[in-house]
Amino acid sequence: MVSKKKYILTIIVVVLVTAFLTLTLGNVFLVEIGQRVVLSEEAYTEMKDMYEKYAKQESVMEIAKRDFLYEADEKKMLEGALEGTLKALGDPYTQFMTKEEFASLMQDTEGSYEGIGVYITASDDNKILIVSPIEDTPAEKAGLRTGDKIIRINGTEYTADKIDQAVSIMKGMPGTSVTLTVQRLKEDGTSDISDVVINREKIKIKTIKPSMLEDGIGYIRITTFDMQTAEDFKAAYNDLKSQGMKSLVIDLRYNPGGIIDSTVGISNMFMGEGVVTYTKTKAGEVEYYKSDKAAEDIPITLLINEGSASASEIMAGALKDTQRATLIGTKTFGKGIVQRVQRFGNDGEGIKMTVSEYFTPNGINIHGIGIEPDIEIALPADAPGYGYEFYDTDNQLQKAVEILKEKMNQ
Q: Buried b vs exposed e over 344-356: b needs ≥16 C-beta within 10 Å?
């Protein structure tokens, strides 16, 4: 939690640093006389203005403590001020995180947590949108789908601006249950709203799912990109090669993204020397993520759909722009911005902030647009599933195999 002392100390430090820089750059010096410090008029005015700006927050808190009918917790108000500062930016991906929220996020990137197993984001109408349920988790088993919107949790309404609170409610001890009120859009443009009861479990995310298909065609599904994904992918790839793999299907359907370094590490295996992606900040700072000369010479098809987002789109964009793979499926989600997560202060809190946008090797930013496949083919709405376990009904995977057979016969 953020203490009043910490909040005020932060303001004082900012004021003093600003004043110091102003005075130093202007060749004017602070003069200390006994217990007093003599400032220039310009520095004094700047410090006074800054004090008055932050004094409003202190005044509001004092009014609340004096007049609010119920308890006015000072620590919670200070924490709320920090949350509100970032929320006011209007970006659903930017947020202040409490100690518990920051620890939870760090745990998620390691590949396990306790909850229902679903990736969510903010929709354009300020609702909680399901990007994709995680395979073999309670959310998928309960029938949640990409595009569903969570309206209420345990009877309480949650909108996208309360997505962090929603996440904390959905997580919980294994064996307990949570009730989601879900809105699902139908083909005729109307929507159904229904309650779904889901039992929480210990979620261990298995990000790599390999299999050998027919005629030396390997298959690797990547469910998300966490810290171990690249290494796990390489191990699965080498195992398939030892079994005689001659071409490969990479399945990114319903993969909501994750860590950039993981997707770059996998893309690097196949691209040869070049740029996988690059990011650009508001200040125009550009960071390139490059691949080296070494590349696996093997035909590749890449499966994508509307649930493929963020880091998945980085890989899809890189392999498409460099003509290294044939993309099959439907248009991707369209998340082309990058968030940086950092610890804030000394009490375990954190900040997640959108700091840059990423571009494909050809300089394309797909945020809000998505990536079009080379061959568009939709999975039937009544398909029982997707992936190698459902090969007989997975027309997208069948098409990917067909294309690889054609390439191998050329």
A: beeeebbbbbbeb
Q: What is the Cα–Cα distance from 325 to 327, expressed in whole angstroms?
A: 6
Task: DSSP for 341-385, please give it.
Answer: EEEETTTTEEEEEEEEEEE-TTS---TTT----SEE-PPPTT-S-
Instruction: State CA 8 to chain mean position distance.
Output: 32
Confidence band for 35, pLDDT divided at 50, 70 and 90: low
What are the CB-based long-range contacts (under 8 Å, 24+) for 363-366?
364/317, 364/321, 365/336, 366/313, 366/317, 366/332, 366/334, 366/336
Both tokens assigned to 323: 């003509």
- How many Å apart are CA 75 and CA 70, to the nearest integer? 15
Whole-structure pTM value: 0.70
| Options 104, 267, 291, 310, the catalytic residue | 310
> How high does pLDDT run on average in the chain?
87
Of the residues 132, 321, 352, 394, only one is catalytic, namely 321
Query: What three-state secondary structure class fits 284?
Result: coil
- What CA–CA distances, in Å, run from 289 to 34, 262, 292, 336? 55, 11, 10, 15
Contact between residue 122 and residue 160 where contact means Cβ atoms under 8 Å apart:
yes
* Residue in 209, 320, 335, 352 annotated catalytic: 335
**Could you confirm whether 251 is annotated as catalytic?**
no
321 is catalytic: yes
Cβ atoms of residues 105 and 97 within 8 Å: yes
Phi-psi region of 284 (alpha: psi -120 to 50; beta: other; left: phi over 0): left
- As separate numbers, helices (DSSP H) first and strands (DSSP E) second, the chain gives 10, 21
Longest Cα–Cα distance of the chain, Å, equals: 89
DSSP 8-state secondary structure symbol assigned to residue 225? B
Dihedral in degrees, nearest 10, Cα atoms 268, 107, 302, 370:
-100
Given a cut of 50, is residue 309 above it in pLDDT?
yes
Question: Cβ(258)–Cβ(224) under 8 Å?
Answer: yes
